[in-house]
Amino acid sequence: MHINEKVPIEDVFPLKDEHGNDFARRDYTLKANRDYVARLAESFDKSTLQPDEMPVLVQDGGIYYIAAGNSRVEAMRHLGLKFFRAVVLDETVEEAIEKKLLETAVRTNVKKTYEDGELAEFTRQLLLFGDDQYVSEVTGIEKARVGRIRKGAPHAGEAVDQMPLEWYEAVGEAEEAGDAELVGALTAASASTWRGALSQMRAKRETEERKAALLEALAWAGIPVADSNADMSGLRYVSSVSTEDEVKRREWPEGSVAYMQWDTYGYVYAPEPEADPAVERAKAELDAARAQLRETRESRGEWLAGNLAGIEPGYLVGLLPKGSELAVYADDVIDFAEAYGADIPTGPEVTVAAYCALTECAPWVGDLHNLDPEACQMFVKLTDALELKGYEPPEAEQRLYRMCADALGKEDGDE
């Protein structure tokens, strides 16, 4: 190893493998990396225009290859230097690739973060050089995660330059679980859609698991599940059920039977000839609507608390009926802040006050046969307004939305 005081910058190139691939090199066509190079150049010695830490090179005839310091060399090119000082290793290019390159790249990544695609490509190459323990030690990624990333790597195909490490890991996790459908959904997705595909498949799996657990619990309790078209007249409503715990924690009347309205939500009925089925069904439906409203309020509130900064103060105020008054920082606003841990500065408190006013009343009065048109209208308008800002209503809210929209349609028709 020696120091060369005058390396011609025009003879310096990135180190490459036998296939012409650059190792541990930023993509300097990306704006984020060009901006980084410009900032790095500003930190150089003002008299020499060179960095304090010299680049490390390997020499092959009259050509030099960069073993460490790609960004420093790019910064000197940015400053227009013709010659610079560098450490030149007494190794061949092949030896440098074997011994120095990957470790140097890791030290670089510790100091400054690669773009997602670059980091994924870099890690994919590391997988070719060693086992999971080695890759974990070099990258700092947990060994178990490295194993999942390794399983996902063969599925990358042409998407390898686009997908982040999280995609590799998600595919590997699905591979470990033997979930071929999820693997197919992820590999068919693009860099911009794979997270949505993963979310949809996980939601589907969660629903399937909840349904299986609920049906198993009903069987454990000796409660048969009636056909969806079964006549439930002559039976009294006992309770709604949506989880296995709700089934297992109580005693059920003899002869109980379950009617599943949705995959993960049903009603349990029991014999009682004198009961009025219509009344009991109405009670059950009201219980379901109340549960849906609770879930809706929780979903909306949690989303709003995390997105206050992106909503203009007057956005929700405009949904209120004319003449409405807002008590900013009233008890309901304070309760909202405490419930969701939201820090509400000046401006967003108006949004929260409007939200609390819009959600104060249920869409019905007493029971589901007496829907309040104004409350239904505010429910529909609020869901529409939040969706325009990126909110995704849960299934419970969508059911209430359809109920309110249908009621508003009938109201208009009556007029």
Global morphology: elongated
- Rg is 32 Å
Structural class of the secondary elements? alpha+beta
With strands numbered from the N-terminus, the spatial order across the biggest sheet is 1-5-3-4-2
Helical amount among residues, as a percent range?
40-55%
In round numbers, the mean pLDDT is 81
Order of helices and strands: EEHEEHEHHHHHHHEHEEHHHEEHH
Poorly predicted sequence stretches spanning 5 or more consecutive residues: none
Q: DSSP strand (E) fraction?
A: 5-15%
List the helices and strands and how they pair.
Layout: E1 2-8, E2 12-14, H1 31-42, E3 56-60, E4 63-68, H2 70-79, E5 83-89, H3 93-111, H4 116-127, H5 132-139, H6 143-152, H7 165-176, H8 180-188, H9 194-220, E6 235-241, H10 244-248, E7 257-262, E8 265-271, H11 277-306, H12 331-340, H13 348-358, E9 364-365, E10 367-371, H14 373-388, H15 395-414
Parallel strand pairs: 2-4, 3-5
Antiparallel strand pairs: 1-5, 3-4, 6-8, 7-8, 9-10
Helix pairs in contact: 1-2, 5-6, 6-7, 7-8, 8-9, 11-15, 14-15
Report on the architecture of this protein:
The chain is of the alpha+beta class. Helix content is 51%, strand content 13%. It contains 15 helices and 10 strands. It has helices at residues 31-42, 70-79, 93-111, 116-127, 132-139, 143-152, 165-176, 180-188, 194-220, 244-248, 277-306, 331-340, 348-358, 373-388, 395-414, and strands at residues 2-8, 12-14, 56-60, 63-68, 83-89, 235-241, 257-262, 265-271, 364-365, 367-371. The strands form 3 sheets. Strands 1-5-3-4-2 form a 5-stranded mixed β-sheet. A hairpin with a 1-residue loop joins strand 9 (364-365) and strand 10. The chain is elongated and about 100 Å long. The model has no long low-confidence stretch (mean pLDDT 81).
